[in-house]
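Record type: monomer structure entry
Structure origin: computed from sequence
Chain ID: A
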Amino acid sequence: MANFSTHLKASTLTSAPLSSIALATHILTLPESLLLFSIGALSGLLPDLDSDNSTSIQWLFSILGFFLSASVIFLYPLSSLMEMWVVGIVIYVITMYAIKPIFEKITVHRGTLHSILAVIMFALAGITLSLVMQQSLSLSLLIGLAILIGALTHLVLDECYSVDLANNTLKSSFGTAMKFLDRRYPLTTLIQVLFIGAGLFYLYPYSDEMRSVLVIWQIQLENLTIIPSFISQWWR
């Protein structure tokens, strides 16, 4: 199994092309591209949320605490600085010392979160939350794509580490890192399916607008300049 540093580096590398293309095609602004890059890089840690002693879970829940605090303050403007501080600190403390321990207790490492089904759930959650935060559909879809790529990178990397190339053998962990779903835990798998269903139901009214966004992406990608003009002229 790859360690925390390896997962973060891998997801950073896979996140860079997506965010740079979004910036080069003017689909996103520079701040939005940086946000997309950060989300994609951190998404490479998501499947390790079920690891009780993982550095990933500490990082992700810390970031989640800050994100929830900022979101509440942003969505519900408070009248004083003191209220902002108190609300932010309370939400962060609840996230780290109430939600996180419960999450650690009910999850099993390399269980249902280490599956393609969970990756789809994470991606749909990213799109939905972005829309709830009143972001554009284009940015929301790209956030979902970045989460999908980052989390899948994690699963593929762990599966690759299950192969012993030196001895041409498969380790006992082979097949546990990248699976469509985990049959050992039917209840949590069912919960994932329900979350995916809820996400698709929420996004259904956006289906026509999504098709329009994809057409715009296609046009902008077709007009993307990949090679500098002086190089293309030199080759001619």
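Annotation 1: The two ends are 48 Å apart (CA to CA).
Annotation 2: Residues 163-170 have pLDDT under 50 and may be disordered.
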